[in-house]
Amino acid sequence: MAKCRGLGFDGASAMMGKFKGCAAVLMKKYTLAKPIHCSDHRQNLVLTKPCDVKEVKIALQTLTEVCNFVHSSNMHCLRFTEVVKLTSAKREELVPLCPTRWIERHDAVLVFVEFLPVIAVFLEEELDATAGLLLIAIHVPRFLVGLVVVECTLAHTLKPSRTLQRKDGDLVSAYARFVASRPFLASSEQMWRIISTMCS
Questions:
Q1: DSSP 87
Q2: How would you label 141-152 residue by residue, b for 16+ Cβ within 10 Å and e otherwise?
Q3: Per-residue pLDDT tens digits for 52-63
Q4: Cβ count within 10 A of residue 52
């Protein structure tokens, strides 16, 4: 710790508090270590903005409900795995959507998109009212538009996110990748609003 020159925190007062926060306690002992708001956490905060788009909210809610349904019983999990084995999918199970960390959602959304045809077959085969409602929900245009919005946004932030989460991650290259994706993220918000209007 004597060589430490920076401390990354999530911005919560318990961590960044000037008087009693973790940063304040550590700075008393390690005066050269300056606290900063963690880049990965700041990215989480920035990426939650697309959640204001109605279609994104619908997509994330439906995705969560489908994952919860699949994972609600061992029988559902087994039947879902059997349907997956009939395809050429690389994975065998859905990844649940993390409710708090947007960055953790990369895998959940990308796996869900990959499994969408499998999910449709699985839900068709389930003789359950909930499965029927979820089957209808994943065919609704608002859901599909929202899913595309989320997938495109996450596709542009996946590499820098992974770089920021690695212990040996290069902050400069991650920043450069975010700067490169900024025009897409800026233009996409307007595009998503136009698509949203068309779906209404």
A1: T
A2: ebbbbbbbbbbb
A3: 677 778 888 899
A4: 11
Instruction: Provide the whole-model pTM.
Output: 0.69
Ranges in the chain, pLDDT < 50: none
Q: Which amino acid is at 166?
A: R
Q: Rounded to whole angstroms, how far apart are CA atoms 66 and 57? A: 14
Alpha carbons 62 and 57: distance in angstroms, whole number: 9
DSSP 163-190: HHHSTT--HHHHHHHHHHHHHHHHHHHH
DSSP-assigned letters across all residues of 7-63: EEE-S-HHHH-TTTSHHHHHHHH-TT-EEEE-HHHHHHHHHTGGGGSHHHHHHHHHH
CA distance 182 to 45: 15
